[in-house]
């Protein structure tokens, strides 16, 4: 089974009052195709830093990262932007939908940015909305959707360009228990049926049964308990 995401020897430090503070230290992570990994840890443990580095939004101080077998450390800004668009799908704590775009238009915009147009984009949009039970809401604006519906659209948008890796940052934070679990189960189903990898940072222990592995970020490293 191939690894869609590999992080080896990752470190990240920054200067705080003239002192170098280490946030991540020799962090290791491999996520196989079809695997859904949850990462937990207290506030200030470095979870946001970890996810930003995994998503090519922040460069590590040291170590190497590969997405779908392609090393990403050292890519220029154009290369990183292309990688984020084509290989990574992001799901945030808030759905971050564009308020003046209808549901279908949210997905079509992502396709347009990647140069996918016409029938291919239309078919991909309809397929994703159908799989996530949102086809009947394709003409609705975000303000007309429930919290769970907005997160389902966010999942569809993250999947629009068929990414290798999905990165989710507290996707259930604004949802109640049942809706939160439903959203995470949808992510898990897409990961397993489509052969993707996913990493979710969360504090919500109620959704952990939907994940294949749970890791804790402690002293700058990911550990299993």
UniProtKB/TrEMBL annotation:
It comes from the Bacteria. Gene3D superfamilies: P-loop containing nucleotide triphosphate hydrolases. GO terms for molecular function: ATP binding; ATP hydrolysis activity; transmembrane transporter activity. Its main location: membrane. The keyword Magnesium does not apply. GO terms for cellular component: membrane protein complex; plasma membrane. SUPFAM superfamilies: P-loop containing nucleoside triphosphate hydrolases (SSF52540). Pfam families: ABC_tran. The keyword Transmembrane helix does not apply. InterPro entries: AAA+_ATPase (IPR003593), ABC_transporter-like_ATP-bd (IPR003439), ABC_transporter-like_CS (IPR017871), ABC_transpr_LolD-like (IPR015854), MacB-like_ATP-bd (IPR017911), P-loop_NTPase (IPR027417). Belongs to the ABC transporter superfamily. HrtA family. The complex is composed of two ATP-binding proteins (HrtA), two transmembrane proteins (HrtB) and a solute-binding protein. Part of the ABC transporter complex hrt involved in hemin import. Responsible for energy coupling to the transport system. This is Putative hemin import ATP-binding protein HrtA.
């Amino acid at each position: 089974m191939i690894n869609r995401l590999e992080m080896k020897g990752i470190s990240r430090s920054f200067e705080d009052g003239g002192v170098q503070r280490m946030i991540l230290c020799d962090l290791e992570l491999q996520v196989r195709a079809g695997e859904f990994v949850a990462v937990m840890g207290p506030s200030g443990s470095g979870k946001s830093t970890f996810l930003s580095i995994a998503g090519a939004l922040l460069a590590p101080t040291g170590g190497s990262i590969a997405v779908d077998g392609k090393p990403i450390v050292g890519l220029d800004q154009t290369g990183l932007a292309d990688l984020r668009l084509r290989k990574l799908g992001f799901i945030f704590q808030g759905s971050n939908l564009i308020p003046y775009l209808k549901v279908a238009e949210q997905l079509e915009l992502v396709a347009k940015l990647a140069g996918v147009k016409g029938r291919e984009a239309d078919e991909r949009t309809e397929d994703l909305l159908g799989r996530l039970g949102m086809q009947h809401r394709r003409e609705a604006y975000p303000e007309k959707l429930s919290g769970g519906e907005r997160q389902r659209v966010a999942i569809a948008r993250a999947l629009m360009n068929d990414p290798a890796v999905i990165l989710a940052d507290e996707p259930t934070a604004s949802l109640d228990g049942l809706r939160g679990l439903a959203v995470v189960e949808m992510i898990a189903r897409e990961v397993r049926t489509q052969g993707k990898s996913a990493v979710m940072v969360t504090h919500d222990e109620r959704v952990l049964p939907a994940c294949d592995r749970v890791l804790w970020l402690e002293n700058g490293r990911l550990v299993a308990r």
